[in-house]
Automatic annotation (TrEMBL):
Keywords: Isomerase
Organism: Moorena producens 3L
Start and end residues of each Cupin type-2 domain: 47-114
UniProt cross-references to Pfam families, sorted A to Z: Cupin_2
Keyword Isomerase carried by entry: yes
Protein name, as recorded: Mannose-6-phosphate isomerase
GO molecular function: isomerase activity
Amino acid sequence: MDNRCMIPVVRSPKDYQAYRISPQDKNRLAIVFDPDSANASITFCVEIFEPGGKTPLHYHKIGVEMFYILKGQGLASCDGKIVTLRTGDTLLVPPTGIHEIRNTGTERLYTLCWMVPNEDFAELVRSGTPVEFDEEDLRVLGRQDVLVAC
């Protein structure tokens, strides 16, 4: 049995750095935890899609990707099957599933996204252009107190 004790890590939106992976993307990702901070092969992000925003159609060789819809609506496709996403829904995408997430609403789509194992996901996100959260993002993420500090 491993007797080491890991100190819990607490972060809030003021600690996150958001990125736009490609300049034309209408979605942003903010890494909350990654393999370095979690001491495990996991990446946990907040992903924000503008209306009409979507991920590119892609797959992961071994990674399982999971989403929790914080706010908004959209569609997910995986291997040709399309499902509707609404606030409170969860989605699990298996390894090798060719998939995309698309915001079909008139407002932003906010998701929590996990990738296990990391499969270079955190590195891909960090290779993008840094961007900032705005007031709406901070309200949805529940940190109105951060608005005063900005």
